[in-house]
């Protein structure tokens, strides 16, 4: 996957994507939100989740200050700012504590109540807790989280936005081979070279054969240069994170994953349910309902490529979606 300045709780310092891959088993530590290291965003953009894990309104003090935290990479700071400003727009008192660190630090702070809300990634969070879903889709991942999260923690509704592994190609390759999904690579992979971080082959070569029947001509270790390698033709297929701004910058085409090879990584609010009332819960769920992967990718381009202020980008997005 291609690296960007915005790794979600998953890159070198906060690896999360690694965990999201094969079996949601291992948590990778990295430090940026669109990294080519195949990691977990918080580790040290589908349908909404079913019901929140536990009732977040019962027992929550109305009118109390909600403390919104974030990990120490740009995408998570942006998401934290979106949550914070959405809450303020509903009259909720908010304190911001951004750029704190990795999941190992953040999780305990939400559990203790030092933080009230944290932008999380459901697949990586489940991997961190050691849970294994019945299948890699959003519904199954959140159902397993419901069993795995201890009191007083809960997740609210997941957004369709996911920061996860993709197989991406250039527009030229997509047009030449008629590629829209990973399944379209069947019968064509033998002509193509695939690139990604060093560990990508060992983790995904067999699953790609088992799930999609794909055997590539060659595997190359392209690391942080994966997106560029796809663009310049050094490889025809690359493992790039779905919210890596280079996807938009280089006009790459992420292939859909109809068989869910890569596990769900939906942006999902993790809350201490004793710290959020019905008003706060409603504001956060409203954000999830509007946030999708394409939108998050566009926001990250503004932050990571155009160098716009995350708070200003968040404010603009909330206004355009009727949430401010």
From TrEMBL:
<dbReference type="InterPro" id="IPR007210">
    <property type="entry name" value="ABC_Gly_betaine_transp_sub-bd"/>
</dbReference>
<feature type="signal peptide">
    <location>
        <begin position="1"/>
        <end position="33"/>
    </location>
</feature>
<dbReference type="Pfam" id="PF04069">
    <property type="entry name" value="OpuAC"/>
</dbReference>
<feature type="domain" description="ABC-type glycine betaine transport system substrate-binding">
    <location>
        <begin position="65"/>
        <end position="319"/>
    </location>
</feature>
<keyword id="KW-0732">Signal</keyword>
<protein>
    <submittedName>
        <fullName>ABC transporter substrate-binding protein</fullName>
    </submittedName>
</protein>
